[in-house]
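can u do me a favor
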């Protein structure tokens, strides 16, 4: 059986040597977050902060900090979940191999929540300002809940079957929020809570909401699970946790999750939005101040032995990387049944998830053709961009699996090499020029607004890829320091981008003719610091895809437009310099870094971990 609550989980981790207690008083203002980031980067244990400055509740972080620990937490149910997914793909498997799939049925039974008359969540009540006031980055607008499970039900069809449990960040204080009475609720576009909120707004009614913190680890993972609209995350939490989620009915309100550690209960105001943010986010930059919905808090519940779980987001990889890995492990086999012909998809964590999506498709439209070219994979690309949160992808690179049956999307360098030696820039680029992009992405032309490009390649190898920087490569004036991060890719340091009139991208492309040796590289990326961008794969992915807007920042040598189709005959050039409208990157506070260094010194609680 899985864990009943968070404390059971922590006792198990401590028993198996996967948790370290920190007895020193730790400040939730920046210090706890800095510790978490550094311990995660070191592959360290879960961290139990026994004494939190200004708060009586302990905190826990790094629960999902390593792939091994994340799997350990769900070791009793992961195999059941895989088999449930297999049955969804092909129900007839249960008849073909009944013994193999018999163990999936306990998980199916656990999917139905169970109502109870009382639970630990009702042990006590407090004010918002008595919660841990966790602040992760110096310019954050206030303290935030970083692992919330936000529960709503559809106003037109109340009940858990029409509920949504999502992880949408919550700002506890700061800006113009009324202390202890209001908190900010930031949810991005294409999130299921928006369906419930829209129905409430249509009825001109407040939307009831319960914001849970803690509970069994299955609750946390379920809140980030991209389930289809209309399928409750509570069912997934029960199956993954190995036991039915217990709900306590509340007269006139939403049910409480009995084993949660905390719950902020209230309503989303139908008429008020207030400035929320800034917040250091998972793209590696601050998301800026914008008006977002406000929750009027009625009550804050907590269990007697409550523990506050938290994580820190920032430039990936961070602890939330483990969420994506687990989700892919569980749901990856179902992709072909949801998207016919698509063999695999991978949202690249190092690029901030939504900015870069890789896919392997199938080319079966003309299987007898001598020369394969992108046809069916274009249909599949459109299907991917119409599927849930995959629709937020900014760059979608899809290749035909028939060209290399050993292609693996998680070997990103090898996949990009496969694409670059086959891609035809005259035909294989397909833009959406004015559309929606991720709320957290500030490279576009407006809030939630930007562009997309599909790069679809199929067929035989067209070119060999250079692997070294050419000696004495001639470059236009002001461009310098070429470096090669990957075969076929060259990064070049360009002059600083100062204003919207900057035309150095097009000027650079016009200065390179077809005979120029730069064209041996199918992809050129203009950056602020070419050595940094080429130092490793993660730097290249983060710089290139979090600092460019395809329709605005892609150009090429001998570019052309033919009946509204854009292409180029030479190297493709992406302008990945920082622009004035981009959000600022995340930088630690040096004074806090020094404090954490002292904790890692001999005799300190983090010595031997950091």
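np, heres the sequence
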């Amino acid at each position: 059986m899985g864990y009943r609550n968070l404390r059971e989980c922590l006792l198990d981790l401590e028993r198996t040597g996967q948790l370290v207690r920190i007895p020193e008083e730790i400040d939730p203002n920046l210090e706890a977050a800095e510790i978490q980031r550094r311990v995660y980067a070191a592959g360290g244990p879960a961290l139990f902060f026994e004494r939190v400055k200004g708060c009586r509740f302990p905190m826990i972080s790094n629960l999902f900090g390593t792939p091994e620990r994340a799997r350990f937490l769900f070791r009793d149910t992961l195999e059941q979940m895989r088999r449930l997914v297999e049955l969804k793909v092909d129900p007839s498997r249960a008849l073909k191999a009944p013994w193999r799939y018999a163990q999936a049925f306990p998980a199916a039974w656990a999917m139905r929540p169970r109502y109870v008359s009382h639970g630990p969540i009702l042990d006590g009540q407090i004010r918002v300002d008595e919660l841990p006031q966790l602040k992760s980055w110096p310019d954050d607008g206030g303290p935030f809940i970083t692992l919330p499970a936000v529960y709503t039900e559809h106003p037109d069809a109340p009940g858990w079957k029409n509920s949504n449990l999502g992880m949408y960040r919550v700002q506890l204080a700061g800006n113009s929020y009324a202390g202890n009475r209001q908190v900010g609720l930031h949810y991005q576009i294409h999130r299921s809570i928006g369906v419930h909120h829209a129905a409430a707004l249509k009825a001109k009614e407040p939307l009831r909401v319960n914001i849970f913190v803690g509970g069994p680890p299955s609750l946390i993972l379920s809140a980030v699970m991209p389930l289809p609209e209309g399928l409750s995350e509570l069912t997934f939490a029960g199956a993954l946790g190995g036991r039915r989620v217990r709900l306590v009915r509340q007269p006139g309100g939403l049910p409480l999750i009995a084993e949660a550690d905390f719950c902020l209960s209230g309503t989303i105001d139908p008429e008020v939005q207030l400035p929320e943010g800034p917040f250091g986010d998972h793209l590696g930059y601050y998301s800026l101040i914008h008006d977002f919905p406000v929750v009027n808090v009625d009550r804050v519940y907590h269990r007697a032995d409550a523990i506050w779980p938290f994580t820190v987001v920032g430039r990936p990889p961070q602890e939330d990387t483990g969420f994506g890995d687990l989700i892919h492990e569980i749901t990856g086999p179902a992709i072909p049944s949801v998207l016919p012909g698509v063999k695999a998809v991978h949202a690249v964590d190092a690029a901030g998830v939504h900015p870069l999506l890789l896919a392997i498709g199938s080319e079966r439209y003309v299987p007898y053709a001598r020369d394969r070219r992108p046809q069916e994979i274009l249909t599949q690309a459109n299907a991917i961009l119409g599927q849930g949160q995959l629709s937020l992808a900014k760059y979608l690179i899809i290749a035909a699996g028939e060209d290399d049956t050993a292609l693996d999307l998680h070997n990103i360098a090898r996949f990009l090499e496969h694409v670059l030696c086959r891609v035809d820039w005259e035909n294989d680029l397909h833009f959406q020029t004015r559309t929606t992009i991720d709320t957290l992405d500030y490279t576009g032309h407006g809030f939630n607004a930007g562009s997309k490009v599909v790069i679809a390649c199929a067929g035989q190898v067209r070119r060999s890829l250079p692997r070294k920087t050419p000696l004495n490569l001639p470059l236009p004036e002001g461009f310098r320091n070429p470096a090669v991060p990957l075969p076929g890719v060259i990064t070049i340091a360009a002059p600083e981008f100062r204003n919207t009139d900057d035309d150095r991208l097009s000027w650079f492309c016009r200065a390179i003719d077809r005979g120029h040796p730069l064209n041996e590289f199918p992809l050129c990326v203009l950056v602020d610091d070419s050595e940094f961008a080429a130092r490793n794969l993660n730097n290249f992915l983060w710089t290139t895809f979090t600092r460019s807007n395809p329709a605005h920042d892609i150009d090429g040598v001998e570019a052309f437009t033919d009946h509204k189709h854009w292409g180029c005959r030479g190297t493709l050039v992406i302008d990945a310099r920082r622009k004035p409208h981009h959000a600022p990157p995340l930088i630690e506070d040096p004074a806090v870094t020094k404090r954490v260094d002292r904790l890692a010194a001999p005799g300190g609680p983090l010595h031997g971990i950091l």
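The radius of gyration is 25 Å. hope that helps!!
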